[in-house]
Write a structure and sequence with these properties.
The protein is α/β, with parallel strands linked by helices. The protein contains 11 helices and 8 strands. The protein is globular and about 45 Å long. Bound molecules: 2-phosphoglycolic acid. The site of 2-phosphoglycolic acid (PGA) has 13 residues, from strand 8.
Length: 252
């Protein structure tokens, strides 16, 4: 298998020290106890990165942020630089999540700039793309994803430093998911767009995660699709049992 599955948790703006520590410890214990044939990533809010890093020690679970600024340092009040993240022990940064594209008006150009800066600092990126409900209904899903790949993924992206997450916006936090056939169709189109941009060899090795209402009861089917190489999980990553049961259903 050329692409090892990645099970990634996006905690979003959730957890304080106490519950975040308990959650990370519970997940780390299970990951250590089971020989899962997959990689793991946990992305807590910025405030907990240092604390969660300690909980994950010795567990092989990677730590990631949910965003990053493109500048190395300087006058950017409230922002966090790539070097600040590597300094805390982060290996990854999620970039261009739809909640940032919508809430903070992040464009493909900005997402791309952030990805370049993250890669230069030694971070791997999870670059998120996905269509809105309106775009889906208008039959524009593939066109939207192609243009997001074209605009958001930097030319320096490799299969090592970049993971793509396809997250239909209408499926995030709603309990709705596309059909398996739809997911496979979009993932295959994304891989084709990656091949056009980065070459077939890179595209064939790059992981494309599915995100949007992934739960223990639908993970096995979604993640068995040929072009689905893991999951970016929001709600179900906040319950250790759900997160681990997804891994159990997929990576055993
Ligand atoms: P969800 O979120 O699993 O709660 O739908 C996924 C995401 O936004 O990454």
């Amino acid at each position: 298998m050329i692409r090892k599955k990645l099970i990634a948790g996006n905690w979003k703006m959730n957890c304080l020290s106490k519950d975040g520590t308990a959650l990370a410890q519970a997940i780390a214990t299970e990951v250590k106890a089971n020989k899962f044939n997959c990689d793991f990533l946990i992305c807590p809010p910025f405030t907990l990165l240092g604390l969660i890093k300690k909980c994950l020690r010795g567990s092989k679970i990677a730590l990631g942020s949910q965003d990053v600024h493109f500048a190395e340092k300087g006058a950017h009040t409230g922002d966090i630089s790539p070097l600040m993240l590597t300094d805390l022990g982060c290996g990854y940064a999620i970039i261009g999540h739809s909640e940032r594209r919508v809430d903070h008006f992040e464009s493909n150009e900005l997402v791309c700039k952030k990805a370049v800066a993250a890669h230069n600092a030694g971070l791997n990126t999870v670059i998120c793309i996905g269509e809105s409900e309106k775009e889906r209904e208008a039959g524009e899903t593939i066109k939207v994803c192609q243009s997001q790949i074209e605009g958001s993924v930097p030319n320096d992206a490799t299969a090592k430093n970049t993971v793509i997450a396809y997250e239909p916006i209408w499926a995030i936090g709603t309990g709705k998911t596309p059909t398996s056939a739809d997911v496979q169709e979009v993932h295959a189109a994304i891989r084709k767009a990656l091949a056009k941009k980065l070459g077939t060899a890179v595209a064939n090795r790059m992981r494309i995660l599915y995100g949007g209402s992934v739960k223990p009861n639908n993970a096995a089917e979604l993640l068995s699709l040929p072009d689905v190489d893991g999951a970016l999980i929001g709600g179900a990553s906040l319950k250790a049992d759900d997160f681990i049961n997804i891994a159990k259903n997929v990576c055993k």
